[in-house]
Amino acid sequence: MRVFVLTGAGISAESGLKTFRDNDGLWENHRVEDVATPEAFARNPALVQRFYNLRRGALADVAPNPAHVALARLQQALTACGGALTLVTQNVDNLHERGGAADVIHMHGELARVFCVACGFHWDAQCDLTPQSQCPACQTKGGPRPDIVWFGEMPYHMDKIEAALARADLFVSIGTSGAVYPAAGFVQAARERGIQTIELNMEPSHGSLYFDTAHYGPAGTVVPIWVADLMTAIKLDA
Ligand code: APR
């Protein structure tokens, strides 16, 4: 069986990371236009770097929750019997990896990565960034920026994502409001291909009418139950 899982901020909420759309349009007390756009970075790089330094630093204070761990367990079990679980996340945290998942596709980038606007070099973030930070590849001062896909930018890995979706038997959306495209459109693409669709979320998302089945509740509870039921149904060993 080939399972395609799309996750959003809701899967990390019980780990203590804030979602995007539950605080009057503010993300950690900032308007997204002030911190999550290329224009904001051009206008005030110090503010944007500081904002992402804080987000990156906060990763050390949080841990994967039972939803991350259950998905990793399902991925390992499916892989062991010749199936697959493609894990695509809109999240920029690293909790899927720390929960044991492999080959996580970060379509909106990663807090733990940096790239240089001058030469395009990507690398692991070793320390905080400032407007004076220098690119290790081309030495441009001020070149390094968070490797985050900001509003108005093209999400990463779309070819790989579309190929995995086309091969899937089951599409599962977890902890996302379905407000941001292209991820919000994956469920319709899955349906058009006749793929079964399941939503696991705290509440019905914007695209809830496109799902064949839904289970509403906190991801830390709902995801492990769904994983256990699926593993029983398709006779996978835990
Ligand atoms: N368990 C399950 N779902 C939850 C939980 C929880 N504990 N807490 C909140 N949710 C649900 C909310 O009900 C909401 O539907 O998670 C969803 C979070 O939605 P958003 O805050 O819109 O996050 P997301 O869908 O990931 O946002 C998509 O928007 O701002 C951009 O690039 C950013 O990747 C982000 C994208």
TrEMBL record:
UniProt domain Deacetylase sirtuin-type: residue ranges: 1-233
Subcellular location: Cytoplasm
Cofactor-binding details, from the entry: Binds 1 zinc ion per subunit.
Location (main, coarse): cytoplasm
Sequence positions that bind substrate: Y52, R55
Matches recorded under InterPro entries: DHS-like_NAD/FAD-binding_dom, NAD-dep_sirtuin_deacylases, Sirtuin, Sirtuin_cat_small_dom_sf, Sirtuin_class_III, Ssirtuin_cat_dom
Catalytic activity: N(6)-acetyl-L-lysyl-[protein] + NAD(+) + H2O = 2''-O-acetyl-ADP-D-ribose + nicotinamide + L-lysyl-[protein]; N(6)-succinyl-L-lysyl-[protein] + NAD(+) + H2O = 2''-O-succinyl-ADP-D-ribose + nicotinamide + L-lysyl-[protein]
One Gene Ontology term, aspect cellular component: cytoplasm
NAD as UniProt keyword: yes
Family as reported in the entry's similarity comment: Belongs to the sirtuin family. Class III subfamily.
Domain note: 2 residues (Tyr-52 and Arg-55) present in a large hydrophobic pocket are probably involved in substrate specificity. They are important for desuccinylation activity, but dispensable for deacetylation activity.
Protein name: NAD-dependent protein deacylase
Organism of origin: Algimonas arctica
Organismal lineage: Bacteria, Pseudomonadati, Pseudomonadota, Alphaproteobacteria, Maricaulales
Gene assigned in the entry: cobB
